[in-house]
Amino acid sequence: MVIDVFDFSQALVFSLSILITSGGLCVASATRHSEGKFSSSSLVFCTNVLKTFANLSVFAYVKSAELFSFDKELSPSGAFNWRYAIPGVLYTLSDNIAFTVLGKINPAIFSIIWNTKTAMVAVFMRLFLIRKPFSYLKWLGIALLLLGPAIIEFGGKDGEGDEPEGDEPEGEAKEAAPIHWHFICLCGAAVSASSNVYTEYLLKTYSTDNILWQNTQLYFVSLIGSWIAMASQEGLFHVFNLLDPEYLFNTFNGFAFAAMIFQSSQAFVVPYILKYIDNIADLYAHAGSVLLTTIVSWMFFNLQLTWYFTLGLTLSLMSLVLYYAERLFPDSLNAGEDAEDPKSPYQHRSPPDSPS
């Protein structure tokens, strides 16, 4: 099996692809139609508020109604685990980078560059989680994934020439330094990759903790980090302005509220995938979002599908096939060398109360 967990895992991965695509497009639309009314840090802060209270509310409801019979205790010590501060801060940083960059470059190009986190996650997992050598197919897949976005960036100047002429000074400003914003996007992908790997480590190390309680701890720390980021940009007491409903609705447009909903929905799906499956399944979802974002951007954002872009996208998709070839075609390739160590705590596992 590609993913040795319950049958609903494929639906989770597909749902996450849709949420990632929808969230990214809404963030891009929100920042480009905001007319400077709000900063990305304010949007990240409000999103983390929604994530935290949503997880806390569901956790309180589940514990009070006793809907689940697994994870009886909050944690072995019954206390807050401050190790979640590390991925919480990293997630806050990557969210701020993503929200800012999405207002500067095309959503499809952002999606492909951000997808380089696949290669970074693979390397981090190899170094810190999975202590076994990668096959040549995996390394070739990683190389192609790094090459694909580079070709897209190299052809960015040629892609500008294919755009229709017109008086769009704002658009020209956004394309004035593509390498600058693409590099920032790449750094954000690295931060996101490291936070994903460390989050998987924590979720599986403390596997007896209730996943909703783990989510609440993670996003509570992210909430504090996002408030600090917002305070540094907007002022220490800007949070009180967000408590005013009139100010809130006059500041954020419909795309911003939609982005909050989609991003908060990911907060329920991603940790569940990381705890009971692994980062590989999460990367499948991000890979699927690349194709979905490209199609939507071509339809609604006037994305010019140049040869550079098409080649870069093709290489990115080929890299995913090569990287997961041993899982996709176990009968054709020797998957024994890539088998999981039965003693490793980081192997695929089924959630409690589900058939193995």
Automatic annotation (TrEMBL):
<dbReference type="GO" id="GO:0015165">
    <property type="term" value="F:pyrimidine nucleotide-sugar transmembrane transporter activity"/>
</dbReference>
<dbReference type="InterPro" id="IPR007271">
    <property type="entry name" value="Nuc_sug_transpt"/>
</dbReference>
<feature type="transmembrane region" description="Helical">
    <location>
        <begin position="179"/>
        <end position="198"/>
    </location>
</feature>
<feature type="transmembrane region" description="Helical">
    <location>
        <begin position="252"/>
        <end position="274"/>
    </location>
</feature>
<comment type="similarity">
    <text>Belongs to the nucleotide-sugar transporter family. CMP-Sialate:CMP antiporter (TC 2.A.7.12) subfamily.</text>
</comment>
<feature type="transmembrane region" description="Helical">
    <location>
        <begin position="12"/>
        <end position="31"/>
    </location>
</feature>
<dbReference type="GO" id="GO:0000139">
    <property type="term" value="C:Golgi membrane"/>
</dbReference>
<keyword id="KW-0812">Transmembrane</keyword>
<feature type="transmembrane region" description="Helical">
    <location>
        <begin position="307"/>
        <end position="325"/>
    </location>
</feature>
<dbReference type="Pfam" id="PF04142">
    <property type="entry name" value="Nuc_sug_transp"/>
</dbReference>
<keyword id="KW-1133">Transmembrane helix</keyword>
<feature type="transmembrane region" description="Helical">
    <location>
        <begin position="136"/>
        <end position="152"/>
    </location>
</feature>
<protein>
    <recommendedName>
        <fullName>UDP-galactose transporter</fullName>
    </recommendedName>
</protein>
<dbReference type="InterPro" id="IPR037185">
    <property type="entry name" value="EmrE-like"/>
</dbReference>
<keyword id="KW-0472">Membrane</keyword>
<feature type="transmembrane region" description="Helical">
    <location>
        <begin position="283"/>
        <end position="301"/>
    </location>
</feature>
<feature type="region of interest" description="Disordered">
    <location>
        <begin position="335"/>
        <end position="356"/>
    </location>
</feature>
<feature type="transmembrane region" description="Helical">
    <location>
        <begin position="218"/>
        <end position="240"/>
    </location>
</feature>
<feature type="transmembrane region" description="Helical">
    <location>
        <begin position="43"/>
        <end position="62"/>
    </location>
</feature>
